């Protein structure tokens, strides 16, 4: 099975969100799509998988509704379903930051195409910042990038206030998975007085798709929010897996740890494991393993 995985977002004013949710959910179910779409008064954000013809209908519909192609639309491939079901949710924000001054419909930083990114970040006057969470940066990042060490995007504000100064860091370049977090992060930093704020257009995924590995400044793989866990150059499936209990991306070293038990725990979450939770997870893992064996048989 070859599936199209389409990731998209656009910051644009939307209204009558309940009707829009119902329309999109009905369309996605009619065409057999799976994934998640978030809608808010500030725009739309989603990742959905399905046959090429079905995802094409969705993108065409979203383009009619909100001009999604004026934002970001990226395609990749999957050999199996990366999502279990279809969800369309109404949210206060399509990417949660909780900062009213961060308004990408009003101002954002300067977009930098993947082909121009290497030259920009090679400039010693440019401070390169990874805006993603620590479990994502664990899988891979750009050479020389600063990791804020955050557990959620809402913590990025505190990192900027604590660690950065517009007078000392007037020239900043940022990146994230698909570009959406940098839209808000760049808007926030401009509002805080940073003079030159750049961000990677299309995010890491577009960079990995367009830039050859032999000229790339990317190190490792890129964490993605579906069952593929990570992708590499050319958006080929990566080598990481994920902990069933907590979702932490797991390397080969993590899998070799005595704290790793398939379906139950990993080095990150083993300390939080109670006897009752371990029993329930083992039962669930055994049930899923049995179902998989029946499908293969």
TrEMBL record:
<dbReference type="GO" id="GO:0016740">
    <property type="term" value="F:transferase activity"/>
</dbReference>
<dbReference type="Pfam" id="PF00581">
    <property type="entry name" value="Rhodanese"/>
</dbReference>
<dbReference type="GO" id="GO:0006400">
    <property type="term" value="P:tRNA modification"/>
</dbReference>
<dbReference type="Pfam" id="PF17773">
    <property type="entry name" value="UPF0176_N"/>
</dbReference>
<dbReference type="InterPro" id="IPR040503">
    <property type="entry name" value="TRHO_N"/>
</dbReference>
<protein>
    <recommendedName>
        <fullName>tRNA uridine(34) hydroxylase</fullName>
        <ecNumber>1.14.-.-</ecNumber>
    </recommendedName>
</protein>
<feature type="domain" description="Rhodanese">
    <location>
        <begin position="122"/>
        <end position="216"/>
    </location>
</feature>
<keyword id="KW-0560">Oxidoreductase</keyword>
<dbReference type="InterPro" id="IPR036873">
    <property type="entry name" value="Rhodanese-like_dom_sf"/>
</dbReference>
<dbReference type="GO" id="GO:0016705">
    <property type="term" value="F:oxidoreductase activity, acting on paired donors, with incorporation or reduction of molecular oxygen"/>
</dbReference>
<keyword id="KW-0808">Transferase</keyword>
<comment type="function">
    <text>Catalyzes oxygen-dependent 5-hydroxyuridine (ho5U) modification at position 34 in tRNAs.</text>
</comment>
<keyword id="KW-0819">tRNA processing</keyword>
<dbReference type="InterPro" id="IPR020936">
    <property type="entry name" value="TrhO"/>
</dbReference>
<dbReference type="InterPro" id="IPR001763">
    <property type="entry name" value="Rhodanese-like_dom"/>
</dbReference>
<comment type="similarity">
    <text>Belongs to the TrhO family.</text>
</comment>
């Amino acid at each position: 099975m070859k599936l199209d995985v389409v990731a998209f977002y656009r910051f644009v004013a939307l209204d009558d969100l309940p009707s829009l949710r119902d329309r999109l959910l009905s369309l996605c179910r009619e065409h057999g799509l799976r994934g998640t779409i978030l809608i808010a008064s500030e725009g739309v954000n989603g990742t959905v998988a399905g046959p090429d013809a079905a995802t094409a209908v969705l993108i065409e519909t979203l383009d009619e509704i909100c001009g999604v192609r004026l934002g970001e639309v990226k395609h990749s491939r999957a050999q199996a379903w990366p999502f279990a079901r279809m969800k369309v949710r109404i949210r206060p924000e399509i990417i949660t930051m909780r900062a009213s001054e961060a308004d990408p419909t009003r101002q954002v930083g300067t977009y930098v195409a993947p082909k121009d990114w290497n030259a920009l970040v090679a400039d010693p006057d440019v401070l390169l910042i990874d805006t993603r969470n620590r479990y994502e940066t664990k899988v891979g990042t750009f050479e020389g990038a600063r990791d804020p060490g955050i557990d959620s995007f809402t913590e990025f504000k505190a990192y900027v206030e604590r660690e950065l100064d517009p007078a000392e860091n007037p020239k900043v370049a940022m990146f994230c998975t698909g570009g959406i977090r940098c839209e808000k992060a760049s808007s926030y930093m401009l509002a805080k007085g940073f003079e030159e704020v750049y961000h990677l257009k299309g995010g890491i995924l577009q960079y990995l798709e367009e830039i050859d590995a032999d000229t790339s400044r990317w190190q490792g793989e890129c964490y993605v929010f579906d069952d593929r866990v990570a992708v590499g150059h050319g958006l080929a499936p990566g080598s990481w897996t994920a902990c069933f209990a907590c979702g932490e991306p797991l390397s080969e070293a993590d899998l070799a740890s005595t704290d790793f038990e398939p379906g139950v725990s990993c080095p990150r979450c083993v300390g939080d494991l109670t006897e009752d939770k371990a029993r329930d997870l083992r039962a669930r893992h055994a049930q899923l393993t049995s179902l998989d064996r029946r499908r293969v048989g």
